[in-house]
Fold this sequence. Notes:
The structure holds two protein chains of two kinds.
Chain A: E1 4-6, E2 11-14, E3 19-25, E4 30-38, E5 45-50, E6 55-57, E7 60-65, E8 70-75, E9 84-92, E10 99-101, E11 105-110
Chain B: E1 5-7, E2 10-13, E3 19-24, E4 31-37, E5 44-50, E6 65-69, E7 75-79, E8 88-95, E9 105-106, E10 110-114
Amino acid sequence: RKEVEQDPGPFNVPEGATVAFNCTYSNSASQSFFWYRQDCRKEPKLLMSVYSSGNEDGRFTAQLNRASQYISLLIRDSKLSDSATYLCAVKRYSSASKIIFGSGTRLSIRP
Amino acid sequence: GAGVSQSPSNKVTEKGKDVELRCDPISGHTALYWYRQRLGQGLEFLIYFQGNSAPDKSGLPSDRFSAERTGGSVSTLTIQRTQQEDSAVYLCASSRGGSGTETQYFGPGTRLLVL
C-alpha cells in the first residue's frame, strides 16, 4: 500500500460547481500536510498547508481528519483556471523525514 | 528573489550514456529533494538532503542513480548507463529545512529523453 494515496480522477465538473477530493495517508506519525497544484508541463506549486483546525483561503478549504487519516480539499465556485492536477503531500514531524507526495488528482473544469 | 533553478531544461541522450542534472536551490535552504515524474504520473521520490545529515537515498531506483550536494548548496543527480525507462522529468525542490511545516519550492525540472 502506498503511504499517500489519491483518486487519480479525472474529475470533470462544470464551472461554478463545488468539488472535493480526499487524500489518505497510512503513517500515523505524519504531522505536516500540504496541497500542491501542478499545471500541465509545469512544476508543482504550494496551494495551501493543511492545519489541524482546517483552513480556508478564498474558494479553497482544506481539512484534516487524523482519526481517519485523510486530508481533503474543497473548491467552491470552480473556475476554468482551477483545471490542474492537485497533489497532496505529507511529512512526519522530523527534520530528517522526507515529504511524500500522492500521485495527484486531475481536475478539469468545463464551461 | 531567485527561485530554484535546474539545468539543463531539456536533455536528449542515447541509451547507455551518462547524464548529469544540476539543481541550484534557494539560498539558505538546507533541505533539497530530487523527484522523478514520468508522463502522466505522480512524483516519485528519489533522494533527500537535509543539512549535514546523511542523505536519504531510499528512493533511488538502482545503483545507476546517484546524487551529491556540494557545500550544502548545489546538487547534481547523475544517471549512469541511461535506459529508455529513465525518460522523465526530474524535479528538484528545496525548503528551509528543519521540522514542522515547511514549504517546498520546485524548480522547473529537467526533461530527459533517452533514445
